[in-house]
Amino acid sequence: VLCGRTDDCPEKYGEKRTYVEYNLTFHYYCLLMSSGIWQRGEEDEGVDGFLITDIKKEVNRAAKLKCNICKKKGASIGCVAPKCKRSYHFPCGLQKECIFQFMEDFRSYCWEHRPVQDFTVKEPREASQCTICLDLVEHISVYAVLKSPCCKNAWFHRECLQYQALSAGIFFFRCTVCNNKDKFQKEMLRMGIHIPERDASWELEENAYQDLLHCYQHCDVKRCLCKKGRDYNEPDSKWEIKRCQYCGSRGTHLACSSMKSWEQNWDCMECRSIFAKSGQYSKRKKRALAASEKTNGTTCLLEEPPPKSPRQSSGSSRNFLLQSPKMMCQNLSPCSPLELPASNRMTMSLSPVMSNRNWSLSLRHKHLREKRREVCNILKELKAQVKTKTTRLNINVENIWSSALKGFRQRIFSPTNTIEVNFSNCKNRSKTNTSAASKHHFFQLLMLHLQNSSLFEGSSGKNLSLDLQAVKENLYFEAGKMIAVSLVHGGPSPGFFSKTLFKCLVYGPENVKPVLEDVADVDVAQTIQTIKYANNLSSLQSTLQDCCEFLAAAGCSRPVTALCDKNMLVNDLLIYHVIKRITLPLESFRQGLKTLGVLEKMQMHPDVFSSIFCYKPERLSAETVCDLFTIHSSSDVNKVEGADFWMGYLQDVESGESVVTLEDILLFVTGSCYVPSVGFDPEPTIKFLHIRYPIGNRLLNSLELPITKTYQQFKNIMELTIRNTLRVEKD
């Protein structure tokens, strides 16, 4: 009804759609590029947001316009160049080499006003190879030839790039020479290459990675001793093939390399030569020997060494408990009671002996706080990417996941835009100072939903689950993207990842050794536990006989001739159920976490980022809240009138001697009941003024407090104002 053609060519014109009830048939691209229609509906209304009534109006409008190319009616697309009045059909525009930009406002340019690429005189004029089809391509500025914006001598045929983009999709389409994605995609969209917003075609193909499950089975040593040939492999014997621990693409029989145990590591000659040239081979050997001494001869170069505990000087317990935050360091004595519980305020001396458990717990909390401060500084660097341009998300609290998914997938959404949140069922909220509160509340609800969603499994430390429908809908990518955006834009830390999942993300799944606690399925865990704790060979073989189907499904069916074989079997079962089974979800999740450069920073600072991914946020304390705020005063903090009341009040709140909580105070000032991983921007401040009631300014994160004669007056005014303000907002 738009271009008047019957061609059915999805690669050129998009999907051909027919709606019998409305008597409409059109190519999707013809509709998408039409100049007089917009998506006024929701994504599930009409045709992807194009209302049927609007489509019919556009058909009627186009029926009056003549195509400047074929001279027939129905030219719904117009050139956007000022003063240009050319109109044409989508197929006619392709033939005449017009450019259609599948982004933003979906602009179209005629053959005369189309954008062109910069072409300098210095660039070589001779032909080079198109890195997609490998045919020669001339270095000339014409419609059929495109130049890479990120590589100096990379040239492509337009047709090759278009087919590549349709196959790779938005997640995998990138420069074939340097692998650049952002700069390359931006230029290709400008030059009219359509990049569909879907996963790559090879990712959607069933059993596409089946070949990767085949292990290398060949003996590559110069002199093979096996009479049955280099490809012969007999498990649990001297003729079992062991693969190179580094590349996995070379192998040897145990006997051919004089290996006494399967648990010994073996390096192929190629990998040895690489390490020898870099000077690292001898170091790795020494590290392996050191590790083998600690593990009774079992060497594992890929296993991560245990983290070192922070060393503490003598007496550091007392110093830690009595250390003062930035507001208190100037005006409190070393014996300030603000660090002690309410019940101990009158007792200023510490117990001479602390239990080892409390001691280690306090050290752990201190260590985590230091790491989170480092994370905060790193995330602030990433936040520098965020622009002032805003993107609004319309969120329904009753369906947080669907509305968040819809918002993150909208075309205008960009992680680098400032995010504003509007709750659709909170119409009575005041517009003043609620922008930050809505955003903080949204990210808090979103993280809570993700933690309890079907994408993750486990009780406390969670791993990714295998949800085939979620894989098909690319939800793991969206979840990773949401977590990355939340961290940079002021959301809470996830805090629910297992250490195994975190290590898979930062070190790669091939370098991670899962444990029994990572298995979420109770029956599977019970079966593996039974195998692990078998006391004798007969009971082990009996157990394996009972669960033969279970072993076959995991690819772990093998003869067991000794009780010690159970260790390798348990290890393989854990790797299959915790890691191999979720290879696709894990890779998709990793791609999502790359948003705004979060995954890259995680891989650069794994020890630091584990504090916000694997540990729950620390409960707010008087010390934490006090340390958040900076007192603004021209005089010394020690002389600020009212500062002592404020600090005493925080301790009353922490000890439960108040009707409000520390979270209420933080919410009153900043709009957030938690401390974001990226910190507050701007940093919270306090002023003491001669006013009647406290005032919280969420735009500036500032708290103005009244100066009163007595502490009881101060406490009563604080509780009355904070409680009533939050109650009104809630109502």
From TrEMBL:
Biological source species: Zosterops hypoxanthus
Pathway: Protein modification; protein ubiquitination
Start and end residues of each PHD-type domain: 1-114
Protein name: G2E3 ligase
Entry keyword Metal-binding: yes
PROSITE patterns referenced in this protein's UniProt entry, alphabetically: EPHD
Keyword Membrane on entry: no
Location of this chain's protein in the cell: Nucleus
A GO term, aspect molecular function: ubiquitin-protein transferase activity
The gene coding this protein: G2e3_1
Recorded superkingdom: Eukaryota
